[in-house]
Every structure is written in structure tokens, then in C-alpha cells.
């Protein structure tokens, strides 16, 4: 058996793949958080709950309407994004002028409500969702076997992250969003409906969380606590990358997923805390994060 760094090659490559998959979800979720914080200055603690709702909507579309995975990729982010739009217009907008802590407390409360409602209806164990037939099976890469669906998740997450970063950083729409958050009165003077634009930004951020939930549904049990399992790590990713830095969130998400995967090979007890060790080290050296601005 081929050995790499004293470990069997299949084990090492298997954990690398698992780390990249986890990093894909870290990147997508932290990107949505970075968008909401960077443009709206809201720490959205309900982001994990939106991820969970996206997975449950995927399950519901199939079991109640007979709509499969490919329809869910389109409809789930739109449904959750629409709910986010209403939430921003009715609740979130009331705290923009308050201290940032109020936003964290409000969204934390909303997350608890959403989790409690879903647990009341579906129980703590949750439900299962099958892998789509088109993406079932495995690929023989020569050095390891890779499940087709897991490869699809990594590819889809990379495309989604790049497309979102490009839209925010390199297009006229992204420039308009940034201008609306920095000088809303000026942008409003040019005939732009700034409140609606801000609401759409929040909807887009939570829609990204729902899209990650769609991709996660066939991999994990769809349960009310699935967002809670990720949200602490995702917040650490955002802090390490730099609060509000979309590119930093993406690169840090993938990078920390890989670090976590390798740690699980060489020192399994440390895999649960390595992300937070990295966060502490980065904050000591660079308090604004790797890609953040002071």
C-alpha cells in the first residue's frame, strides 16, 4: 500500500476530499454571512437556521409536490430568499440604527424560534433525502474512489462562490450595493429604491444559505439541528477571513476545511478545535482578519 507522510494514501486522499466538501459548505455559508455583514452591518445568527430551512424545503418539495433535486436547486433558494425579504422588511430593518449587538440578539432569537418549530413538527432526528439518480455511483480516480455527488458538491460550490464574488466585486450591481450602504441618500437621489435594494441583498444572502442546504440534504440527515452544527465554525471562518470580506470568506472556508480534514488524519482529537485555534492565532497577529480592513 502506498504511504504518504506515514499514512495510507487512500485514507489521506479520502480525508482531503471530506475536508474540501466541508470547506465547500463553510465557504458558501460564510460568503452569505459576509455579504449581509459587509453590506448591511448585521451579524445574522439565523444563517444556520436558513441553511436548515433550505434543506427542509428541498425535502418538502419532493415529498409534497413530487419535485426532485434539480427543481429544488432553483426553488428552495427563491422560497427562502423571499422569506428573508419579508423578514428584513418587517423585522430586521427596525434595528439598523441600533448597536450591532441588537442584530445578533434578534437573529439568535429568530434562529431559536425556527429550530423549535421544525423540531416540533419533524422531531430531533429529522428526515432523509436520497441522492439524485443522475449523481449516484462512484468515480475511480486511480488513487481513490470518489462518490459522484460529493464531486458535484465541490464543483457546484466553487462555481457559486466565484459567481457571487464576481457579481459583488466586479459588476455595476455590486458597486451600486456598496454605494447604497455607504451613502444611501446619494444613491436614493439617483432614483434607486435603497430600502428595496437592501432587502434584496439580505434575501440574496439567506438564499445562498438555502442553496447550501439543498446541496447538503443528500449528504446529511435533514434535521432541525443541522445548522447549529455548522454555524459556530462558519462564524470563525468569517472572522479569520475578515468581517465583510467576501473573497476572504471563500478562500478561508475552503482552506480551513482542508486543514480540518488533515488534522483528522494526523491528530483526530484536534479536528474539532483546529479552526478555533487558527482563529485565535490569526486574531493575535491580524485583528481585522486575513483579508479584512481595520
Give your account of this protein's structure.
- This protein has a single domain, classed as ABC transporter involved in vitamin B12 uptake, BtuC, CATH 1.10.3470.
- The chain has eleven helices and four strands.
- It has helices spanning 9-40, 47-65, 69-90, 100-122, 148-170, 172-182, 184-189, 194-216, 228-241, 246-266, 274-285, and strands at 3-4, 7-8, 138-140, 145-147.
- It has a two-stranded antiparallel ribbon with strand order 1-2. Strands 3-4 form a two-stranded antiparallel ribbon.
- Strand 1 (3-4) and strand 2 (7-8) form a beta hairpin.
- Helix 1 runs parallel beside helix 5, helix 2 packs parallel to helix 4 and helix 5 (148-170) packs across helix 6 (172-182).
- It is globular and about 60 Å long.
